[in-house]
Structures are given as C-alpha cells and as structure tokens.
Amino acid sequence: MIAFKYSKTEGAEFISHLDTLRHLNKTFKRAGFEVKHSQGFHPHMLVYMSSPIGVGLKSYAEYCTVDVDISAEQFKEEFNRYSPKGIKCIESYAVEKNPNFASVITRAKYVISGLHGVNAEEVMAMQSFTVKDKHGEPKEVREKIYSFTETAEGHEVVLAAGNNALRPDAFVKRLAELYGEMDADIVKTESYVGEGDSVATALSDIG
Amino acid sequence: MDKKLSSILKRVEKPARYIGGEFNEVEPFEGAFNYCVCFPDVYEVGMSNLGIKIVNEAIMSVAGAYADRCFAPWPDFGKELKEAGVELYALGNKKPLKTFDMLGFSLQYEMSYTNVLYMLDLAGIPLRREDRGDSFPIIQAGGPCACNPEPLADFIDIFIVGDGEESMKQLAELKIACLEKQEFLRRAAAEIPGAYVPALVDVKYGINGEIEGFSPDKRIEKALCRDLASAVYPKRFAVPTIEAVFDRGVLEVMRGCYRGCRFCQAGFLYRPVRERDAEDLVETAKSIMCTSGFDELSLNSLSTGDYSSLRELIPALKDALPNVNMALPSLRLDSFEGDFVQETRKSSITFAPEAGTQRLRDVINKDVSEEEIMRGVRQAFEQGYSTIKLYFMLGLPTETDEDLKGIRDIVFKIRDVYAARPNRLRSLKISVSVSTFIPKPFTPFQWERQASEQEVEAKIALLRKELHLRGVVLSWNDFALSEMEAVFARGDRRTGKVIEAAYRNGCIFDGWTHLFNAEKWYEAFRQTGVDPKAYTREWREDEVLPWDLIDVYVDKKFLLKERHAAYANAVTGSCLTGCKGCGLQKVYCPKKDELAAKKAANCKKEGE
Predict the structure, then answer these.
(1) Inside any domain, residue B588
(2) Do the Cβ atoms of B70 and B38 come closer than 8 Å?
(3) B254 belongs to a structural domain
(4) B299-358, pLDDT tens digit by residue?
(5) Residue A17 sits in a domain of what CATH number?
(6) N or C end: fewer C-beta atoms under 10 angstroms in chain A?
(7) What are the beta bridge partners of residue A139?
(8) A166: closest CA of chain B, how far (Å)
(9) What is the interface size between A and B, counted as CB pairs within 8 Å?
(10) Partner residue opposite B291 with nearest CB, options A19, A30, A86
C-alpha cells in the first residue's frame, strides 16, 4: 500500500472531489499500476482519499492511500509522469495498513493572502466567532480556530478539518463581514493528525 | 491566472469546465498559424465530440500550426465574463479568442446556432462578417450542419463542407502562405475542396420570394476524404477535467452508412461508406486506451453492425485490451447476433423501430421487420434487461392513425414476450419516446412539409390514449423546438437575421429543453418579418432549394426517385444488396465494383 501527499493547484483546485477521484484512478491506469480492486458486483479500485476540500481552494496537503504493491519512489515518479496538470505527488510512503486519512486528519493549516485590515490577534481574542450554516443560521465555531497569525506572505490559520471541519472559505466570509469585502486567496499548506498538544503532520509518523 | 477570472471561477457552477490543462492536450505554443476550434455547446458535450479532435489533429499536422479549443460557457459563467469585461479565451493558451488567426465552429445541430453568436459576442468579435475588418480572426465553420450553410452565411467567413481531414490541413497551409484575409478567402474558395465563402456568392430571389438562383452559378463540391487509413486520427485523447457525457475512448470503425433510411441526413451526407482496416483500428485503440486510462471504448459509426470485419475486430480488441468495456452505440436490430458484445450490463436497452407499422417502415426505407424487433427484444430479456426504450418518429410522410396505433401493437407484443418468460424478477418497464419528424436537406424527404402543431398535438393525444398502460411511459419533445430545427435545417440566407434577433432576445443553449424559450424565438420571427411556415411547408420538386449550391455527390434525381418510391411503399434497401446508383459510384465508392456486380446478379435473377 502507498500513502501519499499531493497537490491541487494550477487550476486543479477547481476540480471537484469526485472528479479528482476519477483523475487519480485514470492516472493509476495510465501509469500501469496494478491497483487491487474491491470484490463484488461493481469492482472498483481500492483508493482512499482524505476528506473533500472545497472547490476552488488550492492545496499542497491532500492525502490518499492506494492499494498497490510498488516502491514509494517509483510510485511518486510514475504518478507525476501520468497525472494531470496541478495534481502532483509531493511525498509517498509504503505502509502496512491504510492510515485512513479521512478520519485521522483533524486540523489543517491555510495561508491566506489578501486579508487587508484583518487583525489576527483581535480575532484570536474574540470569545465568539460565528459562521452561517447552510440554512443561514449562525453557528459558533470559535473552538475550531486553533491559531491565526500574520506572516510575511499574509495570514496563517489552523482550522479544524475532517469530520468536524470549519471551511476556510466560510472563515474568510465571516472576516469579510467583520472587516469589509476582500478578495482573498486561500492555500492549504499542511494537514495534521492528533488531538490537543499531540498534533503531527499527517505523514510524519509514517515517515 | 487572471485575478478577475479566478474570482469568477469561485462563484460559478462546475468551474473545472473553464481551466484547460487536460492530460494529453498539447502544450500551448505560439504558431505561425493559430487556430481555435469552437464548440457551441457546453464543455461536457464538446469534449465527447470526435469531429473537433480530428480537426485539431489535422491542423496540428501542419508544420508551425497550433490548434486550441473553446466551448460555450454555461449561462452563469457567460454572464459573469460579460459583466467583468473578461473576453472569452481558449482553454489551452488562455489567450482571448480575438488573438487567434482563425476560429472554427463545429456545427453539430441547428439549435446550437445562437451559441455561435453567443461565443463570438463573448469574445468581443462583431457577429456579422461585414462588420469585421481584417484585424479580427477569420471565422470558419464546418460539421454536418454546414451542408446547408445559408442560415449562418451572414456570420461565417468560410465554411468547409464535408470531411475535415484534408481540407482543414490545406486551409492551415494556405493561411500560412497567404496572410491577407481577402486574398486568403478568394484563394481558399478556388483551391480548397469543400470551401464555401458566402461573400463571393449572391443569392437571387424572385418576386414571390423564392430563390431563383445563385451567382456565380457553380456548385460547391463537398470535401471527400478517399483514404481514411492514411488520414489523421487522434491517437491520444484529452482526458476531460470533469466527467464528459461520454467518458470513453472513441474508435470510428467506418464512415457512412449503407442503409439509406429516407429521413436520415447523415446516411446521405457521409457517403460513400469507407471502412477502416481492423488491424489499424486495434493499434489505434491500444494507443487511445493506454494513454487515457478510460474504462470504456466505443465503436462508432452510423451502423456498426454493417462493418464487414466486426467479427474479427471485436475478439482482437478484447484480446488486446482485456480490461476495457466495449460499447456499440449504433447496433441495428437486424445486423448482429449481438450477445457476445454487450457484456457490460446497462440499466436499459434501446431499440429504434422509428415507425409503428411495416408499411410506414417501408416508406422510410427502415428495412427491419417486426420479427427482427421481437428477436432483439427477446435477446435483451435473455440477457436480463427489464427496461426497454423505444424510439419512434411522429409526422412522417403518409403517416396515419393506424401507424400510430402500430406503436401500441409493438408495445403489447413486447409485453407478451416478457410475460411468457419463466422467471421475471422485476416488472417490465417500457419507455416510448417520440420525436417530430424534421425534413432535412440531402434526404429523399427534403421536399416534405413538417406536420403542423395541431396535427402533432392530435397525434400525441392519440398516443397518450393508446399508451395509457401500466409500466409504459410516453415522452415527446416540444413542438416549437422541432419547428425551429426544421426552419434552420432548411433555412436560406434570410433566416440568419432571425438567429441574430433571437440571440439579442436572450436565446442561448436552445438545444437544452429547459433553456429553450419558444416565446423569444417567435418574437424574433415577428421582429424580422420572417414566416417560419415558409420553411416548414412542402417544397415543389422544381424549386431551387437553398442548399442547391452545395454538392454532396448524391444526385438530386436519385433523391427524387427515392421520394417517389416512398410514396409507393417501396423498399430500396441497403447498398449491400446491390448498388442503387445514388451518384457516388460516379465519383468514388470503395465497393463500387462489388456492389455493381451484385446489382447485375439481382437483375439477372429477376429477368429469369
């Protein structure tokens, strides 16, 4: 089995989760990987992706596991030769069992540019931070913001990811309500596993 | 990416339609000739089209030429582009369409005509050719609808009628050699097969409004690719960024059809039948499938069952590509004992008897008997299908209520066949879909009138009554849509202003039923003083037809003979039973001698 980290950039950030899976499958086929298939009436490739990322959000920290017997080095090289523009393998590791990225990833870091006039310290000092849910009702999400700082490139924020995620575009939308309209560009740069103080980057245990 | 554009992409539906970067697309470069194929429908539809892939392959085969692509933006994206002042761009190099040397529109169906104007407009290019100076790209068009180019003659600088493989190449070569627009158009019209430059042809009208003739009085012969084996064919298919309507590789096994169904335009346009070599096809298929990663390969043609090497081709393909599913979309009922082909089970299977009675099937030269239909249905049931789709046409020449009731008879017989089966796990579902007959240029029915709205309504009312049965669903299409299709299929140059007015009224994506707005179309007819009935009426056999200036090598006399045979309920049958003398035998037909011999043998038999 191969666990790998890949990017969605250069336009590929606009490809939906389901279409991304199609591209991963096709990439494996073009590369000639002999991926194991599920049993049953409609066999499909055994490919396990991390939780979906919103359409339009660039990322350098998507994760996936695929059931194939091949060396990690060869996987990365061949994958990148046959993958579409913007979907590129960054790191790859041979693993014994599926790390199940969709459930173990709990946090993600985003670099956001274009947040003009946003005071990160002020936001972190807030007792309450609400975003609108799909029914338009305000929802308290302050506890899902782990850190928010200003850097040379813009702002950096660590938000809850996975099953209990706070979407970064929802976070930015709320900031726009507080600080005025802005055209922000969001890039996911890292995904983390673990709880409390014991967080680690998603592949660090394996590596 | 442009900042304005990337912020628009975040707001629209399916933004991946507009980003390009497909695997297997060529890296963009600045060519000596830069061409952009424009498909006037949405990305998912256009990416499934084989014609534009062949055209771009032809252009790219010319040294120094670059071919890009562009599809019609869905209305949400189009509106945003317009509001933000972002001009429509090509997907490969992301440059505005305006910066190309030539834009080539693919005309697959009449109801995409407003989208041609929509794309020009979004690109910031004047719609009418007379309003475009020499600085704008040359606007070219091709594809099956170019066989009657007149409705778009005011907007298109040059049409290529017929096969694109060689003519598109010649067009690119000529443009590289000859940079000045007017000179290029003059030379193209004179030198390139199938080239039609509307600015160089005048239409003369009589006092009654009928066409009197064309000046100069010279017919434009369609481009005909005689040797498909040495012609270009894409060996690597671009993999669509979002799922296309057909997410699969396509192999064109042959071009043309032997059958000659009298309503079918493609059956006459693409003559003569040219079959591809089975070994070449296997090599092409291997390349397409291995470089794309598709799961499915479709064997395309107008009647794949008639491909003479099918029995060799299919096992060879299965052998070479063991994990690939094979699809044969146009297998005729009578053409193949198809069970070893259809291994991938689909939810339903479709049959197209086209007409309800044997008499009417004889009229349209759809040479298939009820027995053959039932054999196909029985086979489908044996394979485990329990949903059957049936296609029929409505308003065919000589059609009576008896013919419509024949549809019910077929449905009942299918139910009987199913009821007689021993183990029926599911209940039988039959969906009957009827579409209004549209008389098309270059068919024996090109002179026929289209049924009126009242007639069609009465026919549908009858069918609704007859088919009000458990497990049977009837669907039919909007009359206004069929009427528009009829008008622009047979339209002359004067109908161009209706298309423009309809576009100005807001009509786009008219082929999408939920976006088609009949009211705006009828308003466009009123605004321009054009009567749609003038184009849906019966045409006299001695009238000059708007498409008479095009020669697809099928003799008008042959079409007339076929029309008269239809009224005599006489079946002509397939070319494979002997040459019928359509006209291609005088120009080029690969099976000319074989079919002529068959004909002679038949005549002899009759004589004895």
Answers:
(1) yes
(2) yes
(3) no
(4) 999 988 889 999 899 999 999 999 888 888 766 555 444 544 555 556 788 889 999 999
(5) 3.30.70.580
(6) C
(7) A131
(8) 18
(9) 66
(10) A30
